[in-house]
Design brief:
- With about 200 residues, this protein is α/β, with parallel strands linked by helices.
- The chain has two helices and 22 strands.
- The protein is about 20% helix and about 30% strand.
- The C terminus is likely disordered.
Length: about 200
């Protein structure tokens, strides 16, 4: 038997079994999840505040991180058929909503809150500004991009690698840079390209 052909099968089946066990244990602690999700070595807290649909894939190192405080509702809501690459973090003090069929590159950071600052107090002593983040359907969020409080992205948006998104953009937008800005000439072609992913 060729061991090179056996290796991927063994690794995938082992990871799949561990993923199913992880999701089973998370559900016992209040995690709300649809079917056929995959979570490789992902970290979560306040599981009752997280709700995901079906057929989502979380690669190793993803963090779903609601505020570590009692809350009766949902702080992170994720739809169906999304792919989250390694080391993604969703940091939710208020509410983060992600639609369906989105693709997230590695090292993406999404937060719905900001630390305030002033001259007399340290950042740890300052109150937080809490808001929301909403990402539509069929968006492509590039590697190492950051989405900040108050951002809403319409369907089929593309966020370039390393972009820092500080404001909302409508459906079909292609944004790049720090802070992220719209690339108008890319709209028609990219909207068609993203729609076909």
């Amino acid at each position: 038997m060729n061991l090179a052909k056996l290796e991927p099968l063994l690794l995938k089946s082992t990871q799949g079994l561990v993923s199913r066990l992880r999701i089973f244990c998370y559900r016992l602690l209040g995690f709300k999840a649809g079917t056929r999700n995959r979570m490789e070595a992902s970290r979560c807290r306040r599981l009752s505040q997280i709700e995901i649909g079906s057929l989502n894939s979380f690669v190793a190192g993803c963090w779903l991180w609601p505020l570590d405080a009692e809350h009766d509702g949902i702080r992170i809501r994720i739809g169906n058929r999304n792919f989250f690459n390694r080391n993604l973090m969703i940091d939710a003090c208020g509410y983060v909503e992600i639609g369906d069929e989105n693709m997230f590159g590695p090292d993406v950071y999404i937060t719905d809150s900001n630390h305030t600052f002033g001259h007399s107090l340290s950042p740890q002593e300052q109150p937080m500004q809490v808001g929301h983040v909403k990402i539509g359907n069929k968006c492509w969020i590039g590697a190492k991009s950051v989405l900040l409080k108050g951002v809403e992205l319409g369907d089929c948006c593309v966020v370039g690698a390393g972009a820092v998104v500080t404001k909302s953009f409508p459906a079909g937008s292609v944004v790049v840079g720090v802070p992220a800005r719209l690339i108008p000439s890319a709209l028609p072609e990219s909207a068609n390209l993203v729609g076909s992913l």
